[in-house]
Amino acid sequence: MTVIVVSNRVARAKSDEPVAGGLAAALIPMVRDSGAIWVGSSGQTTDNAQNKDSFAQIEALGTGALATVDMPAKHYRGFYEGFANSALWPGLHSRPDLIRVTGEDYASYREINAFMARALLRFTGPDAVFWVQDYHFLTLGAEMRRLQIGRPIGFFLHTPWADRRTMVAVPRHAELVHAMLSYDLIGFQTDEDRQNFEDYLQHEIGLTAFDGAVTSSRGLTHLATFPNGIDVDEFSDRATKASTRAEVSRLRASLQGAKLALGVDRLDYSKGLANRMRAFDRMLETVPQLKRNVSLLQVAVPTRGNIRAYRELKAELASLVGEINSRHGEVDWIPIRYLNKSFSQLTLAGFYRAAQVGVVTPLQDGMNLVAKEYVAAQNPFDPGVLVLSEFAGAAKQLDTALLVNPHDIDGMARQIAAALAMSLEERRERWHAMVAKLRSSSVQNWFADFLRALTETRRAPARLASSRAGTAPVVLELAGRSVQHH
After folding, report:
1. Nearest one of 257, 431, 262 to 343, comparing CA atoms
2. Are 182 and 112 in contact (CB under 8 A)?
3. Tens of pLDDT along 255-312?
4. Mean pLDDT, rounded, for 430-452
5. Cβ neighbour number for residue 425 with a 10 Å cutoff
6. DSSP secondary structure of 369-419
7. Beta strands of 326-384 (E only): which ranges?
8. CA neighbours closer than 13 Å in the CB half-sphere of residue 84
9. Is there a contact between 375 and 331 (Cβ–Cβ < 8 Å)?
10. N or C: which end of the chain has fewer CB within 10 A?
């Protein structure tokens, strides 16, 4: 089979280039090693929206390929900044108070989904299997079925699926969920997310899932949990190599023997950055002997700067860092080092290894691969401690981390202090347990398990033709293998 992976954006695989987002980190090695074709936006828009069959670029990635398309300028902003990230993202992350969209934004969301469906027609060969990624494309499956694409189509949600009472605040929520039932398989990060979706189906649409499947007018849709993961050995090797990089060496030298707590996140309200900083502030107040003996390095990667909620968050965090540093800082030491910039995965791996404490405290998160990367990056003989929000999907697996409620400032302060004081024996014991969990739920297992489940799934009834008549096949030569697509 030829696997066609679809997401809003594709990412490059160079370890020295910044990579933002867990989705990119998860997909790059899988596309590279599996021979899949990864399709997404080029990051550019065009006024020539009728030019549906020309991709901006198709390039090899290992045994696979990246295929990018320029999106319609008329609709992309309303799709991305509008409905996707000002309605779906806050709703999925249990912040319905931040939903700010118009009817035009929803129309643009549907138009971009329909545009991508038309672009995918050239890949509908007889052995094609489609795997759609994330909340940008909730309705893509329905658009593909409308075009008579009858090949297996799966969908995976990288974010949480919020509880029913929150999801009903999302405009046009029922239409979106009805469209999602055009997928053969819908995958979730955690059982809780899947159960929330099933609860929504039962109470809002009147459909009940039996044995992990739901039957609707669109056919049979399977629902399942597939926790995303990382390649532990690859990331560990990367962290070892990165420890001698100039930026990592300068970081260690600048600490002058003090310990380092580290946070790495996109600049997003779901990540709990303000509460994290308040907890660090509170720890220094209650355990004053830690002053000068520890610093928090918070890397906050800029994102979605055109959206009001993100601009306000950026201003809030800058003000908060200034207040905390002015309260505790001295001429040769500041408690919080705050960087609004991107780093390559290689450099970040070195930062993880240098940090005695990894602080991952989102208010809500689908999985959070940073938590897993931090664990994988540690020196097995002298590992650091992970402080992890109980509301991150990763907490369902990494239960020997120090779990915290990100809304409990005092509780987080105590746990960060406990992490800094933890004995070597306990650190090793907790780390070994977490690494074992990471190995059992690797990104390779995630990729293989989802595709196995998708290829074993058959819609009932099988109503659609498997390919488009009259479409000539095209053959691409990619890294020594032929990929046929239509």
Report:
1. 262
2. no
3. 999 999 999 999 999 999 999 999 999 999 999 999 999 999 999 999 999 999 999 9
4. 96
5. 8
6. HHHHHHHHHS-TTS--EEEEETTBGGGGT-TTSEEE-TT-HHHHHHHHHHH
7. 336-339, 357-360
8. 23
9. no
10. N
CA distance 446 to 454: 12
Helical pair 22-34 and 369-377, crossing angle rounded to 10 deg: 70
Angle between the N-to-C axes of helices 369-377 and 232-242, in degrees from 0 to 180, rounded to the nearest 10: 60
User: Are 2 and 127 in contact, with CB atoms under 8 Å apart?
Assistant: yes
Alpha-carbon span 433 to 399, nearest angstrom = 9
pLDDT for 1? 87
Taking a C-beta distance cutoff of 8 angstroms, is the pair 144, 130 a contact?
yes
Does residue 365 carry a catalytic annotation?
yes
| 8 Å CB contact between 355 and 242 | no
Set 134, 231, 281, 365: catalytic member: 365
d(CA 148, CA 479): 31
Mean of pLDDT values over 306-330: 97
Cα separation, 67 vs 18, in Å, equals 20
53 is catalytic: no
Tokens of 37: 């074709």
Q: Residue 275 is encoded by which pair of tokens? A: 């509460």
Quote the tokens at residue 14: 């160079």
Determine which one of 75, 93, 136, 158 is catalytic. 158
pLDDT in tens, 13-49: 554 555 545 667 668 888 988 999 999 998 889 887 6
State the DSSP code for 201: I
Amino acid (1-letter code) at residue 136: H
How far apart CA 427 and CA 271 sit, in angstroms, is 25
pLDDT digits (tens, 9 = 90+) for 239-255: 999 999 999 999 999 99
Spatial CA neighbour of 160 closest among 134, 140, 141, 179: 134
Q: What is the pTM (predicted TM-score) of this model?
A: 0.91
Q: How far apart are CA 133 and CA 23, in angstroms?
A: 8
Residue 318's pLDDT is 97
Whether the Cβ atoms of residue 154 and residue 466 lie closer than 8 Å to each other: no
**Alpha-carbon radius of gyration of the chain:** 23
Nearest-10 crossing angle of helices 308-328, 273-286: 10
